[in-house]
Inverse folding.
């Protein structure tokens, strides 16, 4: 009786051939996806700087040092909007970061199991609110409340500082209201990422610290925060990027002003809000080009912020630090 020839080597060779084809196709697909993203970014940069060329060639570096924005005399500068962007974004980050980290710690370490999911869902729902709706709420509710209560209290307590001095507005449309809106928008982003980072810390490390006699705060300070600092830094940078590029909500509550005032109670403007508020009504080519120049500045700032985020993550990543050691 003759033996039936085995088909196993043939199937194995076909499997290996298909695997090689699949691996190469997968590598090609991912490479094309990465190349597409780079091409899109390059196309955006090329188009923005191309449209801003008229203003760049006319004003050059002086654009960064000029506070005037006068369409009548065709005199434009970005310093006022750079100031508004920096103050609103970074002050909002200073307020939102500790609040968000505290929320993340509460939800991951202290909250009863029955309410963790409910509170986490409510906090994350803030991120789902459209910017225009949040801005409308700022006009109708937050602005008048801050003008009637918060601004008066801050002026009474901190009125000796330039930021909290000056005349109070009646409707609450001010830089301080924009800071509050940006803080509300940043909290769900930073807190949700922080919560996931805290939950990812191994229980053995936490229980070991508690077993050695550490209090819960000492365990948080000595175990959880050091283990997650790179992720927290990335979450803060992500929240900052959200604030830097926000246009609609800020435009609705910041008031819009073309004069510099050190007081946070006064109306102001940011790069994004100025573009959103004035581009459609630009009457001359140089004004439109100057607004796109603002967009180019904002684009470069976003790129720098993302590079800083990568540097911070690489610097404080515990795995990389252990590998270097």
């Amino acid at each position: 009786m003759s033996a039936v020839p085995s088909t196993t080597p043939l199937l194995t060779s076909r499997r290996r051939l298909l695997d090689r084809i699949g691996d190469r196709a997968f590598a090609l697909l991912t490479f094309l996806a990465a190349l597409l993203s780079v091409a899109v970014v390059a196309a955006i940069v090329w188009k923005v700087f191309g449209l801003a060329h008229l203003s760049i060639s006319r004003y050059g570096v002086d654009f960064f040092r000029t506070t005037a924005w006068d369409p009548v005399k065709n005199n434009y500068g970005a310093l006022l909007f750079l100031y508004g962007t920096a103050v609103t974004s970074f002050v909002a980050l200073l307020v939102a970061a500790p609040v968000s980290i505290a929320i993340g710690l509460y939800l991951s370490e202290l909250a009863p199991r029955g309410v963790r999911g409910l509170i986490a869902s409510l906090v994350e729902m803030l991120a789902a609110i459209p910017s225009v709706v949040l801005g409308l709420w700022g006009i109708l509710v937050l602005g008048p409340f801050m003008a009637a209560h918060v601004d008066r209290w801050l002026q009474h307590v901190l009125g000796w500082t330039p930021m909290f001095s000056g005349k109070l507005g009646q409707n609450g449309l001010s830089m301080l209201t924009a800071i509050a809106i940006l803080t509300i928008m940043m909290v769900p982003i930073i807190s949700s990422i922080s919560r996931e980072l805290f939950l990812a810390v191994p229980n053995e490390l936490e229980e070991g610290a508690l077993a050695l006699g550490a209090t819960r705060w000492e365990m948080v300070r000595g175990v959880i925060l050091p283990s997650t600092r790179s992720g927290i830094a990335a979450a803060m940078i992500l929240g900052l990027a959200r604030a830097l590029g926000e246009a609609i909500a800020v435009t609705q509550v910041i008031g819009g002003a073309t004069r510099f005032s050190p007081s946070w109670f006064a109306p102001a403007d940011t790069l994004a809000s100025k573009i959103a508020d004035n581009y459609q009504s630009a009457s001359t080519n140089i004004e439109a080009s100057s607004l796109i120049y603002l967009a180019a500045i904002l684009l470069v700032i976003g790129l720098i912020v993302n590079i800083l985020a990568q540097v911070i993550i690489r610097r404080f990543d515990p795995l990389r630090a252990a590998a270097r050691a």
Q: What stands out?
A: Residues 65 and 79 are 6 Å apart (CA to CA). The chain has twelve helices and two strands. Residues 8-51 form the longest helix (44 residues).
